[in-house]
């Protein structure tokens, strides 16, 4: 009986120094897949290798030896003894493995729930498996269903709609204020990691030009290179407030970098254009009273944390809904998997009908030659239709027995009734 097995480690079961041993080389995936092709215990195989996850997905007739082969491959890949990492591995079989794959593809199992990168990584892993010819009937079906599940989860739940990082929450707020970020100008003050990340998100969402200000101008130049931005001196911040729409600030200053008086002085010249401050500094860079000015919006790190906590609660509810979708789709896949047991008998039935049809047509060839091409085609269509209708009821019967007690008996009776095994024995002689 074919088993589906998933063996791997992720950010929850293994430290990064262990994961990177197995995921560091770009060609590892191809290396593993080529090795899988030569292992008798592995029928089909797929390998996923990212910074947070290393997994092998296989089908096998021998669960024990198949799993052992995968662990040996991982040991060889990382240059590590099995004992060094075996305790960090998880192992799922059959429907648990199917549900796990669906959860991974839907980013339910990710470090940041709802992140979109993992689906692309899985698609790349599957594409490589098809190129290396290690994916077959079962994994092909499983991966396409995984992509379908991921799409359903993203469409039917809010798992990707709620920001859970400080930087991303800031960007979502900016989108609410400006409706769209296209061509909006951004001023980045300081060089903190979260400020840079917020600026990256803004640019990805369509924000236009970026200006970078830093107390050390050389550092401003370095950060500006990242965003293809324009560096300015710290003293130019006041003049930049006249032009920009969004200010992201993250400095180590002990006093306010942006004051109420400074912002008020530029508002008249801005002609009521909204100005949005994202203050990720601790202590704060933007004087709180700035928020009292008309068309000026200030959000500090505590505001953003409150939003992420609320969004995290929403996302947890989305995970509950996503899990329901996963279980529903896994049940459908299990039903399809069970139909594979009747496929050989159905194929044998159709092959026998085709063989009989061809034999009878050969016997009637002298008569058929006297007919016009159109008449011959009509006779062929009639014979095919009769054969298909005769086979339709037994095929539907077999499919209907899938998942029910007595399936093996029904298969056995069908093969004896139509003498399918005798025909196969003749073919072997």
Please name the CATH topology of the largest domain.
Beta Polymerase, domain 2
- List the uncertain runs: none
Give the end-to-end Cα distance, rounded to a whole number of Å.
27 Å
Q: Estimate what percentage of residues fall within beta strands.
A: 5-15%
Category from helices, strands and their pairing: alpha/beta
Main sheet specs: 6 strands, parallel
Architecture of the largest domain, CATH level 2? 2-Layer Sandwich
Structural shape: elongated
The largest sheet has its strands arranged as 7-6-5-8-9-10
What series of H and E elements makes up the topology? EHHEEHHEHHHHEHEHEHEHEEHHHHHH
CATH superfamily of the largest domain: Glutamyl-tRNA reductase, N-terminal domain
- How many helices? The count is 18
Number of strands: 10
Radius of gyration: 32 Å
Give the CATH class of the largest domain. Alpha Beta
* Helical amount: 55-70%
Number of spatially distinct domains: 3
Integer average pLDDT: 87
